[in-house]
Amino acid sequence: MSTPAVHPVETPPVNNVAPPRMRDLQGMPGTIGSLILRLCQFGFAVVAMCVMVTTSDFPTVTAFSYLVAAVGLQIIWSLVLAIADVYAILVQRSFRNAAVVSLFTIGDGVTSTLTFAAACASAGITVLISNDLDKCNLNHCTRFMAATAMAFLSWFATSPSFFMNFWSLASR
Description:
Helix content: 55-70%
Distance between the termini: 56 Å
Number of domains: 1
Number of helices: 4
Radius of gyration: 25 Å
Number of strands: 0
Strand content: under 5%
């Protein structure tokens, strides 16, 4: 008859080190990629607003007024966050605070939704004026189209910022 043998097992050393954090990917708050996205958002929104405001008849159409309001909010939001990104880059820190990142995420979500909705509404009115009513010669169709395109480009630059902020927040 055999007898069971007990073999001593060494216990692993206790390690009080926290697990490694996800490294900062370009586009996350406080990185050069985020600053570039913010400057693109700001630039496209400024061009959209300037083009739309230089037309004399944009206030007569609600969708165009909504576009001006939405890109105006986008300008302010992008400029403030670009300044925050510049500060974070200068002090060589990234945004790790969950409250700050959630504020960025919510703000990017709201501004991107508003900008996209305004660009879609303006695109619909522009198509109505140019294709369906065939009144482009009486209106500023090319300017309306350019402002709408710039609003869409601003939205394209805002979406990656939103998703990177959301991912950063969700990966905590």
